[in-house]
Design a protein that fits this description.
Length: 334
Amino acid sequence: MKLLITGGAGFIGSNFIHYWLKKYPEDKIVNLDVLTYAGNLENLKDVENNANYQFVKGDICDADLVNNLVKDVDLIVHFAAESHVDRSVIDSSDFIRTNVEGTRVLLDAAKINGTRFHHISTDEVFGSLNSGDAASNENSIYKPRSPYSASKAASDHLVCAYFHTHNLPITISNCSNNYGPYQFPEKVIPLFITNLLEGKKVPVYGEGKNIRDWIHVDDHNAGVEAIIKKGKIGETYCLGGNNQTANIDLTKMILNLMGKGEEMLEFVKDRPGHDLRYDLDYSKAKNELDWEPKIKLADGLKDTIAWYEKNQDWWKEIKSGEYRKYYEKQYGVA
Ligand code: NAD
Ligand code: TYD
């Protein structure tokens, strides 16, 4: 089988490429990535000489390039996106361009050849839950509240529309917050781990009461694999982590695992429109695909901390580059 992976130089996409090539060494992978600030070929150093892996630097909005690449692939797994909520608050233009228009370009290319298309999406499209609300599932109403989640919701709707209108063989997964190796250190878990390794404090938004459902990236990618292999065409699957945790508790877990005291924690200005809580009911994936998340947050965090401790060159390079300007703007300190 030949797969086109979009956004394969980012966090989840690069983990997916490692996961897939290890499990299916006969398959061929083409990785299309434009290498934004979040794309990093260092994530794929160990596969760059693999004869079954090819990297193409390019934009998913470039229809000629995409049409050419899609011609001879059996499956598209679409990870490429602008993915950081805080950046979408500052400027949403790239989010609309890549997440909506880029998805449209890929869908039109897939339509020409009837190519199987798996779309990677997020639980954030279901909006913010209150503390007593039931977890979101495949039948929940879309209520996105950030420019990021609105752009992902739009792309999900487009993917569904191509199934109903053009009979395109699609599937969609909506997943909880991921963590693990190679996550760009602007997202909360790698930001806090690397700040602590640098001797800096960790900035908790508001009062730290917001709740996220954490899933290890390997569990997510196993879920995507299960959908590719066993999912029903035209269906959506929610991939939850079974690890609902308030940010303040997550922060204390990280401090504890890294042997740091609570004096390293500082409360900072809240994110505008900050979604209170996400939670996903993954019983459909469990019942129909025999998939469930396996990695407990405490274990996954321990491994992730060890990875960032071991791979300091990887994140120090990022943190000393262009990203510093963003960090300074966001938190007022370099
Ligand atoms: P990321 O920001 O780490 O990586 C995104 C990748 O896409 C980067 O390599 C970037 O260079 C590439 N890219 C961006 N714009 C592009 C364009 N126009 N053309 C080609 N490549 C482009 O993101 P991630 O955290 O790995 O997320 C991957 C996918 O998973 C996204 O679709 C995201 O919405 C979804 N998702 C993420 C999470 C999470 O917690 N990170 C949770 C659920 C779903
Ligand atoms: P993040 O990793 O940005 O993911 P998302 O916004 O997509 O859920 O943030 C996870 C949670 O952590 C979210 O509630 C915001 C909070 N957060 C902080 O408290 N401090 C920070 O510096 C960051 C980046 C996030």
